[in-house]
Amino acid sequence: MTGEEKKSAQYRKLVVDIKDDLISIHKIAGEINHITLTLKKEKVILLGADLMACAGYLHHYYTGVESIFERISRSFDGGLVSGGDYHRELLRSMTLEIPRIRPKTISKELAEELDEYRRFRHMFRHAYGSELRWRKMEPLASGIDILTANLQQKLFEFVKFVEKLSNGISPDY
After folding, report:
1. Which of 13, 56, 105, 167 could join 94 via S-S bond, C-beta 3.0 to 4.6 A?
2. pLDDT of 81 strictly over 90
């Protein structure tokens, strides 16, 4: 296999992985949406288990998003960013166009929205459940459908770019 064929295979694998991760993210968003709608419809008293379930799904949602960004970073950016601000820097790096390498993956506005989920995930990982409050989770849970649609649109645009590369076409961006 030539160098170009190997690179093409890597790009094709990246496309498959991004699409697979998007399917998982979409399923998680559906679970979050289901919990949110149930809580709004039934107006039940929130149990710790309900909060923990929704928090866990929000955690997994952002972890799935970050997995996609890590794959892109490994494929195009020369590897993963490092340092104490790793998660924030990875998200920021997806808003940057790298001339002659890749277009930006997401807009700064979308990154700002995703940053709320990143911060929630950080809190969830370090709070051990004692600080979970529905009033803080509810805006994230309620906004998951729109966020997912916007994210999916941007990632599909990026996938088109990668598909062109995998076919040996010089993409315009």
Report:
1. 105
2. no
Summarised one tens digit per residue, pLDDT across range 39-57 is 777 666 667 788 889 999 9
Taking the C-alpha atoms of residue 137 and residue 54, their distance in angstroms, rounded to an integer, is 8
Residue 163: which residues within 8 A CB-CB, separation 6 or more? Answer: 11, 15
Distance between CA atoms of residues 154 and 110, nearest Å: 9
**Residue at 173: amino acid letter:** Y
Q: What is the pTM of this model?
A: 0.91
Rounded to the nearest 10 degrees, what angle do helices 108-127 and 48-76 cross at?
130
Q: Tell me 142's DSSP state.
A: H
In this structure, the number of other CB atoms found within 10 A of the CB of residue 117 comes to 21
- 40-49, 61-70, 74-83, 163-172: segment of lowest average pLDDT: 40-49
Residue 14: name the closest of 159, 125, 153, 151 by CA.
Answer: 159
Calculate the average pLDDT of the chain.
90
Spans of all domains in the chain: 3-164
